[in-house]
Specification:
Blueprint (H helix, E strand, L loop, with lengths): L2 H8 L29 H8 E7 L5 E7 L3 E5 L9 E5 L21 E3 L5 E3 L25 E5 L3 E5 L1 H6 L25 E2 L18 E2 L4 E2 L29 E4 L6 E2 L3 E8 L4 E8 L5 E3 L3 E2 L6 E7 L10 E11 L6 E2 L3 E5 L9 E4 L19 H10 L1 H4 L3 E4 L3 E3 L14 E5 L8 E3 L7 E2 L5 E5 L2 E3 L5 E2 L6 E5 L2 E3 L23 E4 L2 E7 L6 E3 L2 E8 L6 E11 L8 E5 L2 E16 L2 E5 L5 E14 L7 E3 L2 E12 L4 E3 L10 E8 L2 E2 L2 E3 L10 E4 L2 E2 L10 E2 L3 E4 L5 E4 L34
Parallel strand pairs: 11-18, 13-21, 22-23, 23-25, 24-26, 25-28, 26-29, 27-30, 28-31, 29-32, 31-33, 32-34, 33-35, 34-36, 35-37, 36-37, 37-39, 38-40, 39-41, 40-42, 41-43, 42-44, 43-45, 43-46, 44-47, 45-48, 46-49, 49-50
Antiparallel strand pairs: 1-2, 3-4, 3-7, 5-6, 7-8, 9-10, 12-14, 14-18, 15-16, 15-19, 17-18, 19-20, 19-21, 51-52
Length: about 750
């Protein structure tokens, strides 16, 4: 997170009498008065900062903490003497609600305060109780309740048991730091313990944090739907702005996957008036209202989250389940009933699929697909699946040896309903197993209804194209897409890497694309993926792009019109969210095209782009656009041009095109000095030089300093102008006066 942003969040003096910090002790070598960390001299300006808060007696507590990892634990208002106290998450990322399924105990390091008390990293910094009450004894008539909250992950209520044990581990000056695991509750099902920073390793970016299980609504299954759910009526009335604008909402889940244990469902939703709530139901069970965004521990994305319970005593039987959701705008707007999400629940283990082994040393004639007698080709494994799919639903084709493997078309289509997985075996990296046809004249055509690749790489310059049949679905999870001939190679007919006509189903999660002309094109979902060294288009025509990073796009490498986000066609319900791009050169950042296109209900939210040269090219919007949102976009090195100079259907015609809380170079009509076209609202945006436009503008030189597409910060005299001066967006903003521009970033998982 940019240092100025963290200071804005945390360098506050809380009102005397409202803060209750107790039991703070000093730890050796951790605080501003302790010994210097051996690496502090070279990294202190990037890694640490001093957090100062007032105590009831007027003294100031100082804590030395890693940047972008602090939270606040708050006592609810209403009772005299209740107020906020400091808490620590002890981990990287955006907050307390992280993935803790595989995490061990916290190895905390105490931070020091001037009062001689220590705060263990990874734990909450104080016992939360009413000020003035004896330790462990709540005042009469008061409930010892507290909330823990974070500006990005939202908040949740703690039980009294959690309050009782949330106290620092006191370490005497010069003493050893405790390695005792941090326990945040006396109820083991309420909190899990995560890894934290260990002594002498404070600048290690792999630290993790405490995670909450019950921050999310648990879905109670019903008996299944008897028919369709009716589309909800608009909220508000037709005299209110945005009344006829439909919510933009999508599931952040790959459909038809087999899940077990507690499974966190993610959704994203936006509207020009904000989002009031998302209602979700499992098999026509009670509708659960999701009103806050949290970090989803399964995906790492800040989104709306609900949980399918994984208790084997649950009423959910193993098999296919259906989820439905409705996103409701705030105040006025048209709710969106999402397309149903289908998943296979396997809490009782009745849907486990078999494993078929493949290896270069195997034999298709004499092999039987066992680990000791594998097949030689993936095609033979698919033949087996296709000839007896009832026995091979959900099968895993495990490649045991490194090498290059073709996925030839099987003898007959594989008509599976549960995903069949092709994966590299444990002990092999995803670069050890390469999927390729062996010739630029050959397709890879697996002809399998639902096919998942994981822990493998795909060389798209050693095939004509990955040919996915129109109704089939493919899922690339922890894969690497690349062109073995490098980013100057142009594929035959300039084909996109994977065929996905009609968006039949192409999903990419936790993957990478490197050294390519094209990255992730025509995808239904791209999440938590990294792109590096692209000479052409990055996210062209992908319906939902979430939590991705980009490092180096160069339109001068070859003769190509390079774009970061390019869309052409007829689009409704498009989401691009939480993207950070660095080292972008001779590339249009945003290009909503003019070739037979319309754009309706599209959201571009929390996106930062660092250009290494000023425009041209410039970002441009064309054609008819209705309810198109740019929220918290940082594009300070490239103009937005609204192309009202185009002829025919390519002319920019707008209704409810909203620029809100952005950091931009300039927003203009096609004519440099012409007025902004009708139908465009520009609200609380910051402009890089003296061309402010719209309501509540700020202006001042500003640039993004970006380190390989991971973390970024703003520099320049304009940086201070964007602090706390933006508009609140219901359902998204973390405060009533958020900062302008994109917020903090982390690398994909």
């Amino acid at each position: 997170m940019p240092s100025w942003r963290l200071r804005n969040l945390l360098n506050v003096r809380l009102l005397a009498g409202l803060l209750c910090l107790t039991g703070m002790g000093m730890a050796a070598g951790a605080g501003p008065t302790g010994a210097t960390h051996p690496r502090e001299s070279q990294s202190a300006d990037k890694t640490y900062e001093i957090v100062r808060m007032s105590k009831p007696d007027g003294t100031v507590v100082e804590m030395r903490v890693p940047r972008h990892r602090s939270l606040l634990a708050k006592l609810p208002g209403g009772a005299a003497g209740h107020g906020p106290a400091v808490a620590r998450d002890g981990g990287r990322g955006r907050g307390a609600f992280g993935d803790a399924a595989d995490r061990g105990p916290t190895g905390g390091q105490a931070a020091a305060g001037p009062d001689g008390a220590g705060v263990e990293r990874g734990a909450v910094a104080s016992q939360l109780r009413p000020c003035g009450d004896p330790a462990g004894q709540p005042a009469a008539g008061r409930h010892r309740r507290a909330r823990i909250s974070h500006p990005y992950t939202g908040s949740r209520q703690l039980t009294s048991g959690a309050v009782d044990v949330m106290r620092p581990t006191a370490v005497p000056r010069g003493g050893a730091v405790s390695q005792t695991p941090v326990v945040a509750s006396d109820n083991a099902s309420e909190w899990r313990t995560g890894l934290g920073w260990v002594p002498n390793n404070e600048d290690d970016e792999t630290g993790r944090y405490l995670s909450s299980d019950d921050a999310f609504a648990e879905l109670v299954p019903g008996d299944g739907w008897d028919g369709p759910t009716d589309d909800p009526d608009p909220v508000g009335n037709d005299s209110m702005p945005g009344w006829d604008a439909k919510a933009i909402a999508r599931w952040d889940v790959v459909p038809y996957q087999t899940v077990s244990g507690n499974f966190e469902i993610g959704l994203l939703a936006f509207h020009m008036n904000g989002i009031e709530r998302i209602d979700v139901s499992l098999e026509d069970g009670p509708w659960q209202s999701l009103r806050e965004m949290h970090e989803n521990p399964r995906t790492g994305i800040r989104e709306y989250v609900a949980v399918i319970p994984g208790d084997t005593d649950t009423a959910i039987s193993d098999g296919l389940v259906e989820l439905r959701a409705i996103a409701y705008p705030e105040g006025a707007g048209t709710p969106r009933l999402l397309d149903s999400l289908f998943l296979f629940v396997n809490n009782h283990g009745t849907l486990d699929g078999p494993i078929i082994y493949v290896a270069k040393s195997g034999n298709d004639s004499t092999g039987d697909g066992s680990q000791n007698n594998p097949y030689a080709t993936v095609r033979q494994a698919l033949n087996v699946c296709g000839s007896g799919i009832d026995d091979y639903e959900g099968a895993t084709i495990r490649i045991e040896e490194a090498g290059r493997y073709d996925v030839d078309q099987p003898a007959q289509p594989v008509r599976n309903t549960r995903w069949i997985t092709i994966e590299g075996a444990d002990g092999l990296s995803r670069d050890d197993v390469v999927i390729a046809a062996g010739s630029t004249a050959d397709y890879v055509r697996p002809n399998t209804q639902r096919l998942r690749f994981t822990n493998v790489s795909i060389d798209f310059s050693d095939m004509y194209q990955m040919y996915k049949e129109d109704p089939h679905q493919q899922w690339y999870d922890n894969c690497r897409w690349f062109y073995g001939q490098g980013w100057t190679y142009t594929p035959p007919a300039s084909l996109c890497p994977v065929r996905n006509v009609g968006y039949g189903g192409l999903f990419v999660t936790d993957s990478g694309s490197t050294d390519s002309i094209y990255a992730f094109i025509n995808c239904n979902l791209v999440r938590n993926s990294h792109v590096e060294r692209i000479s052409g288009d990055v996210f062209q025509n992908s319906l939902m792009v979430v939590g991705c990073s980009v490092d180096t796009v160069d339109g001068t490498v070859m003769s190509h019109h390079s774009d970061l986000f390019q869309y052409f066609g007829v689009y409704d319900n498009l989401i691009v969210y939480d993207i950070n791009a660095a080292s972008i050169k001779s590339t249009q950042n945003f290009f909503l095209d003019h070739a037979n296109t319309t754009f309706t209900n599209c959201a571009f939210v929390n996106i930062s782009v660092q250009d290494v040269e000023s425009d041209p090219p410039f970002s441009q919007l064309n054609s008819t656009q209705e309810h198109v949102l740019f929220f918290h976009v940082s594009n300070p090195g490239q103009r937005f041009v609204l192309r009202d100079d185009m002829n025919g259907a390519g002319k920019f015609v707008a209704k409810n095109v909203i620029f809100r809380n952005n950091v931009v170079e300039r927003i203009q009509a096609a004519g440099y000095f012409d007025p902004i076209p009708a139908g465009v609202s520009i609200e609380s945006c910051h402009f890089n030089y003296n061309a402010p436009t719209g309501d509540n503008p700020t202006v001042g030189a500003i640039e993004i300093i970006n380190s390989s597409g991971s973390e970024f910060e703003y520099r320049g005299i304009g940086a201070s102008q964007i602090l706390g001066s933006a508009l609140h967006i219901p359902g998204y903003s973390d405060s009533d006066s958020p900062d302008r521009g994109a917020t903090s970033w982390r690398l994909p998982r």
